[in-house]
Structure formats: C-alpha cells, structure tokens
Amino acid sequence: MVIKRIGFSGLAAMISFVILAWALSATVSPALGEEKKKRDLPPRAMFIAPEYTGVVVPEGEDVSMDLTVRNGGRQDEYVNLELTAIPKGWDAQIRSYRFAVKGVHVKSDSTRSLTFKAEPVEGTGPGDYLFSIKAQTEDGKLASSGEVTITVKPKEKEKTAKGVKITTSYPVLRGPTDAKFEFSLEVESELDQDATFSLSAEGPKNWDINLKPAYEEKLISSLSIKANRSETMAVVVKPHPMAQPGQYPISVKVKSEKAEAAADLMVLLTGTYRLEVGTATGMLSLTALQGKEANLSFYVKNSGSATHDMVRFLALKPENWKVAFRPENLQGLKPGDIKQVEVTVVPSEEALVGDYAVSLAVEGERVSRDMELRVTVKASTAWGWIGIGIIVLVIAGLVTLFVRMGRR
C-alpha cells in the first residue's frame, strides 16, 4: 500500500513537471540576442539645395526663393553657409525671416529652410547671372554646393498700334508640366467708336491654348469693346503632357479694321515630379522567422520629367522590429530611370506567430508613394524540436521511475 501511494504522488508530481516543461519551452525566448540594431541613417550626410536652379524675371525685379539645408546623418551638425559667387550688379544674401544667416544648426535627420534673396542694383540690364552657394560642416569634413541662374529679360514693351493696347501684370508664369496656366490681359480701346476685335494666340506645337472672358468658362474668338473703354480677357494654356522643362513663348494678337496690337507671354515649365514603386511580380508579402532576416526587392521608377535629387525610404513597423534598405537612398534619379532596392525585415524575437503589416514610404521631390508589406511570422523550428526533446526526456524518466518502483 505504501508503494502504491508513493507511486501515485510521484506520478502527479511528474505530470506537473511535464506541463511546466512544456510551458517553458513554448514561452522562453532564446538567451542569445542580437546586437543593438544598426540605425538606417549613414553616420554623416549633408546637402544644400535651392528651390529653383534657374529662374526668368523681368528687368529690375528681385528674386526670392527657399533654400533647404538637409542633415541626413546620425549626428547633429553645425553648417556654415556662404555665397561664393555674386555677379556684378547684384546684392544677395541668405536670410531667415528676420536677418542674414551665415550658419545654421541642423539636427539629425532634419531639414532647415532659409531664403535666398537677390536684388539687382539700379541699371543692371538683361542677361544671365550665376550665383553659387556653399554649405560646409563646422569641421570641414562635409561640403555641398548649389547654383542659381537668374535670367533677366527686358521689360515687356507694349505692342500697340494707334487706337488699342494690351497690358498684363504677369507676362511670365511658372509651374509643372501638368499644370494649367491662365494669363489675365487687359485690352484697352482708344477708338472713338465701338469696335469688335478678332483674337488669336500662337504657341508651341500640340499645346492647348484658349481665349475666354475674365471669370467665365466659355471660349471666345472675338471681343467687343465700347469706345474709349477696356475689357479683360484670359488666355488659358495647357502644355503638351510630354513637354520638357524650359521656356515657351506665347503670342496673343487683337485686331480690328482700324487698330491692332500684340503681347508676348512666357510659360516656364519646371517639369513634373512622379514616382512609381512596386515589385516585379506584384507580390507584397514575405515570410520570416522570429528574429531572422527576410528580404524583398522592389523597384523605384522616375516616371516624371524632372530629376529627383534625393529619394528617401522610411518604414512604419511593429515595436522592436528592424527594417533596413539597401541602398539607403537614391540620389539624382533622372526621368525614366529605374532602380532596384532591397528591403530587409527582421521580426522581433518575441513576435507571436501570425501576420503583420509593415508600411514603406518612398519620398522624392514633392511626391511620395506608399507600399504595405504583409509579413507572416513563423516560429523557429529549432525551439519546437527542443520542446519535444524535453518532453521525451521527461517521459523516459517517468518510465524508468515506474519500472524501478515496480520492482520494489
């Protein structure tokens, strides 16, 4: 009887031990962890970029544009700024909203926006003027430069004949290729009688150019003006989708039996900013083990007509996960260029088995694209075998114990 009671008590203890061993094998994480994750950013990276590299302005007009200083590295930087080339006949400065700036502090993975301002001296005539801007870290180990070309055009002269003239406050409009440009023109008749003027406009081939009354959507080909009065009309210009960045002249004419006039307009195209991202197969899913790397390749294509100076990659991931990109960024992505990028995803070692979402962002110049990856996490097979081994050992121990106790 004593042996039986001892055997039952021992059996209960052994069963408890088996359950505890199984629980420990399912929940205990590996003792060895990986090193602290490596940050996605490079140790140091800095560049400066003006908002525009070339502008066209009428004679006597000031130029003001944004100037971006970017710190893409891991440490904060003190950046010295200098205008290394200022053409004769111009005063130029780098400014904040209140004062001139010669240096700026930029935190890690941050951007500071300043203003480049250039003012012509009285008497500065038409021509091309090149300004050079230099940025350099305080220790002199990193440097970046940018250039701005200001093209000064002669003041628009009103082309008039006796009795009529055309004026406009904004003869030059600037924007991307896929924008619609609308010029406002005032047509003033100096005739002593009412007159009807025919209208015409000429521009680049395959461009859509229409004339319409101000604040109305209907299209017109003539304009009736009372004696010694004026009327306002609009010239709506839509560039050809494949038009390249550059300057494009538009000529507008008004004509009646007794008078005629013309005006020259200008559209300055800066190009379009577009990006396409995806995978060769169209699949956006991958399988990973806890704490192990899983890789996926995707492409980035510049489908616009303007160059992306810098394309960055960002990731929104679950806590304690790691996401890295190779290369870390793309520089100088020209129109039509396609680049391959590899993303590495490492789930947390404590991640539960199941499906997770990892969002990727591709940021270019004035445009960004997002992708969402589906990551299926599976448990490491090694720990499953370890758990089974523990159970087998426990059962073997129980069998041995019962055999010995039975012999007694």
How large is the radius of gyration?
36 Å
Sheet with the most strands?
5 strands, mixed
**CATH fold descriptor of the largest domain:** Immunoglobulin-like
- Quickly count the domains: 4
Order of helices and strands, N to C? Answer: HEEEEEEEEEEEEEEEEEEEEEEEEEEEH
CATH homology-level superfamily of the largest domain: Immunoglobulins
Shape: elongated
What is the count of DSSP helices, taking H or I runs of 4+ residues?
A: 2
Oligomerization category of the chains in this entry? single chain
Assigned CATH class of the largest domain: Mainly Beta
Number of strands: 27
Structural class: mainly beta
User: Into which percentage range does the β-strand content fall?
Assistant: over 45%
Uncertain stretches = 1-6, 24-38
- Whole-number average pLDDT? 86
Q: Compute the separation of the termini in Å.
A: 12 Å
Overview of this structure, please?
This protein has 408 residues and is mainly β. The chain has four domains: 2-30 and 382-407; 46-153, Sandwich (Immunoglobulin-like); 164-269, Sandwich (Immunoglobulin-like); 276-379, Immunoglobulins (Immunoglobulin-like), CATH 2.60.40. The chain is 13% helix and 49% strand. It has two helices and 27 strands. The chain has helices at 2-27, 381-407, and strands at residues 46-50, 54-58, 63-71, 77-85, 90-95, 103-106, 110-120, 127-137, 143-153, 164-167, 172-175, 181-189, 195-202, 208-213, 222-225, 230-238, 246-255, 260-269, 276-278, 285-289, 294-301, 308-316, 322-326, 329-333, 338-346, 354-363, 368-378. The strands form six sheets. The chain has a five-stranded mixed beta sheet with strand order 2-9-8-4-6, with no helix packed on it. It has a five-stranded mixed beta sheet with strand order 11-18-17-13-15, with no helix packed on it. Strand 8 (127-137) and strand 9 form a beta hairpin. Helix 1 (2-27) packs antiparallel against helix 2.
